[in-house]
């Protein structure tokens, strides 16, 4: 637990204001919207809880919509600002002012099992897709920055060989990595003005098909001013355990976000285990709670082997 | 030479150097250093003193055994020193009983033994002239300034027409005016000859001025590449124009900040003996998956 995150207030507004979970249909020809969640300052709206539930089950084919684009490219997608019709349409449909959409595909080998779509609102933060170039180094292939001018400038010129920096470390290991305290974190090399810009937490996720050889990585850089999520956790099986009940938290930056801590812990546990068991992304919301509660569980594969579940808490 | 091999002219892959410590353990000084250079590219390596920069360079030069990993130059894995790599150290190490001309000729006679005496002499004169020593070819080292001696050292290295030039803080002992002069001399030669070069330096401005790329090394032990900065400035370089470039100070600031952060981390690094002991106890109590995933020192 870190100082920067433990100060997050209950129901603090997050950069992510909307998310969707798309899962591959049984026939493998389309993806269906399994759930979507709107995060409001005073609560959450969720398709599973009957809000615009007619949208659930909507299908896209490979290449259609932002989820279909991520599926087609087998890579993380960043859409931002006008003239992105998709961004405008999703924002308008949900009554949100979105500045970017991030789509992250969950791959098992070559197969895309799920796509999560994050709707980003105005506020400081960064999303970066680092892809391999012809020197076998990672360089920025897509990005979204808000109010992080120095980081945006220097990142255009920075490259990471395998094992270097946060992206290179994740590329090498094939495991997701959480980096709290970015201003002093040894894996975060671009910490030039991390203190001044309140950069607090980095979450780096591999995107790829081959074990230990990711095609790219998605890096989320969150500020304490308006965090991407109120907390992140990485869950993985215990070293000698094969049973799903033996999953454990291996990294967390989640602070005390709610008085109903025990209930939340149980729900996290259930959501993590459901994602692990199905191998697909899962969302969970608690609309009737005093406090806004939503979580998104994202399984991560290394090649065809499921290695962990990353939890986003809102 | 194909375009592909020009793009990956030098490949340094997982280069690692380890020494045994008093506990009998292998301590990695450099750990899995990766770097690819295009043909004709100049790459500076910066990092704090003792981080392992020179260890990398001497391994590439073939002067220091490689524990693991490989260095491939123009499609061939290096094995020991060779005339395909010229090295210039901080001190030129000239033979004091020989003139500048004789010092340079020493290598030329070895490498161009098939050429005539006249040809070898012409090569020697050409490169001494290239470094601005046409009037001092027959001076002995004791008759030359430090800057002039270093020019001889540079001429000696490039006269062998190496595929790669390795510069280990070549201007470290020179005053700033001489340093700037020599930077221009070397850049002139590199631009003409298109020699692929790695230069070790502590000087951020020198790195920006002379390089296509800057490789920033983390602090040791187990030092490695932290990040690489691709500079967007064309060569040949013009010092005045570069200093007036609107992005110059952005790059400078980023490099200095990187070094400062490394210094701050170094300052909080615990002493070696207790570090080894602490590492041993951490291995006993921490599960493998936690060690694998958690961010060093801070993750829970």
Please give the number of β-strands of chain A: 18
Helix content of chain B: 40-55%
Poorly predicted segments of chain B? 270-300
Tell me how many strands of chain B there are.
10
Count of discrete structural domains of chain A: 1
Mean pLDDT of chain A: 84
> What composes the largest sheet of chain B?
6 strands, mixed
Order of helices and strands of chain B: HEEEHEEEHHHEHEHEEHHHH
Structural class of chain B: alpha/beta
Number of helices of chain B: 11
User: Which class do the helix and strand fractions of chain A yield?
Assistant: alpha+beta
Q: Cα distance, first to last residue of chain A?
A: 16 Å
Structural overview:
- Chain A is of the alpha+beta class.
- Chain A has six helices and 18 strands.
- The model of chain A is unreliable at 1-9 (pLDDT under 50).
- Chain B is of the alpha/beta class and 300 residues long.
- Chain B has a six-stranded mixed beta sheet with strand order 6-7-8-3-9-10, sandwiched between helices. In chain B, strands 2-1-4-5 form a four-stranded antiparallel beta sheet, with helices on one face.
- In chain B, helix 3 (100-111) packs across helix 4 (117-130).
- The chains are: A alpha+beta (314), B alpha/beta (300).
- The A-B interface holds A 1-2, 134-137, 139, 150, 153-154, 157-165, 168, 173, 175-181, 184-187, 189-193, 234, 236-239, 248, 250-253, 308 and B 7-8, 32, 34-36, 213, 216, 218, 224-232, 247, 250-251, 253-254, 257-258, 261, 264-265, 287-290, 292-300.
- Strand 10 (158-161) of chain A pairs antiparallel with strand 10 (225-230) of chain B, so a sheet runs across the interface.
